[in-house]
């Protein structure tokens, strides 16, 4: 027996991580996720670990639809067969010899994936999993046809996804595995773009998440302001700006936007090369990739009495440091209607109070605070913008703030230095000369 009875730092870290992931385990149980990865992921040395992580999702109650690509495997098969790889506008032209190579590459890769999902050795993370994989003719395709004068032959696009059959497999506790091929009612086989298969499937199922695994840096690192969350509108703006996106990144980000606009709640873009990134993205508050959310991940709203405890936890360190004036819980609850909060998955990450003086058409900003883990990410500015909109709606013409430590931050956002005499009379009478706070005022 270890002298510490097992309470090592590593063991405690594991306990902490499990406890932190519990809300996400509950939230994701019974949800439908469509997960897409390209052939590049299958060629990566860490691919087996990725498949084991996907199997863990299944064990945690997630309904999983996997869509795999096979681009590098098809390229290799074409080269081995001596068949020229022909692209037109970045899209593969699939003639009959090329289609034979597509079938060979896709079929081989699919069997490799099924083999990994069938692993059951006790010495692997798959021990005891006993997963069942289903597939088949679940995607109906049609020919892409002639584009810019080029006949793409056996290259196709998704015509229909057999939603009922996929749901039936999921209801039987199967993982559904879709390959980048589709079949026509006339019995033809078409080479499809895996990203399109994944997006069309997620939209048809109204999946809770579309997860696209990619190589290279995280998608949001290309944005001017690097939040790990983008709205569909912000993602579209990033696409139109062309900020350093390569063709594959652009295509997958466009798929994420399209999926959200077609009813998928959230689309995640995650690096497959980062070990455990998929699990961190789904089972931690801050994730590991880029989220395109049709809903709002960071919610700004008016505070309620139930938020009092969270607000006290947020502002207590700043009160202890003398940055904010101490407030009791009773005082905070009496003034709760003045507070706006930013919330992420139940955690208050930022707050700001707006205390109105309607007779003077002026309001005071107070208790501007951001959680230590979420600073320097633009939260205070976004929250203040929301509070300014609220002030205008209340008919206020000016805002003022009293600060001892951050006057420059407010000056950079349109505030100007003022005198105590510029404050409302009642606020002048409460001014604490011992704190000697700087007075700043902004005209709305």
TrEMBL record:
PROSITE patterns attached to this UniProt entry: GNAT
UniProt KW keywords? Acyltransferase, Amino-acid biosynthesis, Arginine biosynthesis, Cytoplasm, Transferase
Q: Which GO terms describe its molecular function?
A: acyltransferase activity
Give TM segment ranges.
Answer: none
Indicate whether Cell division appears among the record's keywords: no
| Matching InterPro entries | AceGlu_kinase-like_sf, Acyl_CoA_acyltransferase, Asp/Glu/Uridylate_kinase, GNAT_dom, NAGS_kin, NH2A_AcTrfase
Presence of keyword Transferase:
yes
Its EC number is 2.3.1.1
Which pathway does this chain act in? Amino-acid biosynthesis; L-arginine biosynthesis; N(2)-acetyl-L-ornithine from L-glutamate: step 1/4
Q: Which domain of life is it from?
A: Bacteria
**Where, per UniProt, does this protein localize?**
Cytoplasm
Q: Where mainly located?
A: cytoplasm
Location of the N-acetyltransferase domain: 298-444
Catalyses: L-glutamate + acetyl-CoA = N-acetyl-L-glutamate + CoA + H(+)
- Pfam families given for it? AA_kinase (PF00696), Acetyltransf_1 (PF00583)
Give the family per the record: Belongs to the acetyltransferase family. ArgA subfamily.
Additional remarks: In bacteria which possess the bifunctional enzyme ornithine acetyltransferase/N-acetylglutamate synthase (ArgJ), ArgA fulfills an anaplerotic role.
Q: Cross-referenced PANTHER family, in alphabetical order?
A: AMINO-ACID ACETYLTRANSFERASE, AMINO-ACID ACETYLTRANSFERASE NAGS1, CHLOROPLASTIC-RELATED
Query: Which HAMAP family does the entry mention?
Result: N_acetyl_glu_synth (MF_01105)
Q: What is this protein called?
A: Amino-acid acetyltransferase
């Amino acid at each position: 027996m270890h002298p510490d009875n097992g309470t090592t730092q590593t063991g405690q870290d594991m306990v902490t991580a499990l406890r932190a992931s519990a809300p996400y385990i509950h939230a994701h149980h019974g949800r439908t996720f469509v997960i897409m990865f390209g052939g590049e992921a299958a060629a990566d040395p860490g691919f087996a670990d990725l498949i084991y992580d996907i199997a863990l999702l299944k064990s945690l109650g997630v309904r999983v639809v996997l869509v795999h690509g096979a681009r590098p495997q098809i390229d290799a098969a074409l080269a081995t067969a001596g068949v020229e790889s022909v692209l037109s506008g970045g899209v593969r032209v699939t003639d009959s010899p090329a289609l034979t190579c597509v079938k060979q590459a896709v079929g081989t890769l699919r069997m490799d994936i099924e083999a990994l999902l069938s692993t059951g050795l006790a010495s692997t993370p798959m021990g005891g999993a006993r997963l069942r994989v289903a597939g088949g003719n679940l995607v109906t395709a049609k020919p892409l046809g002639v584009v810019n004068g080029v006949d793409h032959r056996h290259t196709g696009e998704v015509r229909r996804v057999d939603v009922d059959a996929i749901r039936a497999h999921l209801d039987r506790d199967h993982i559904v595995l879709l390959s980048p091929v589709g079949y026509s009612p006339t019995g033809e086989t078409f080479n499809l773009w895996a990203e399109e298969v994944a997006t069309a499937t997620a939209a048809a199922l109204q999946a809770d998440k579309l997860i696209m695994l990619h190589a290279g840096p995280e998608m949001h690192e290309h944005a001017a302001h690097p939040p790990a969350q983008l709205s569909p509108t912000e993602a579209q703006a990033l696409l139109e700006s062309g900020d350093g996106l390569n063709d594959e990144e652009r295509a997958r980000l466009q798929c994420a936007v399209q999926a959200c606009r077609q009813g998928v709640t959230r689309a995640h873009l995650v690096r497959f090369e980062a070990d455990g990134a998929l699990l961190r993205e789904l089972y931690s508050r801050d994730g590991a990739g880029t989220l395109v959310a049709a809903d709002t991940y960071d919610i700004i709203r008016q505070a309620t009495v139930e938020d009092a405890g969270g607000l006290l936890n947020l502002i207590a360190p700043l009160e202890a440091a003398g940055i904010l004036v101490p407030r009791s819980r009773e005082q905070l609850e009496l003034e709760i209607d003045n507070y706006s909060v930013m919330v992420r998955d139940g955690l208050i990450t930022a707050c700001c109070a707006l205390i109105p003086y309607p007779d003077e058409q002026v309001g005071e900003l107070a208790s501007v605070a951001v959680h230590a883990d979420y600073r320097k990410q633009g939260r205070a500015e976004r929250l203040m913008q929301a509070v300014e909109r609220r002030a205008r709606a209340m008919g206020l013409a000016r805002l003022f703030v009293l600060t001892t430590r951050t006057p420059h931050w407010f000056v950079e956002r349109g505030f100007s230095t003022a005198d105590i005499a510029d404050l409302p009379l009642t606020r002048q009478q409460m001014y604490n000369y011992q704190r000697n706070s700087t007075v700043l005022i902004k005209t709305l």
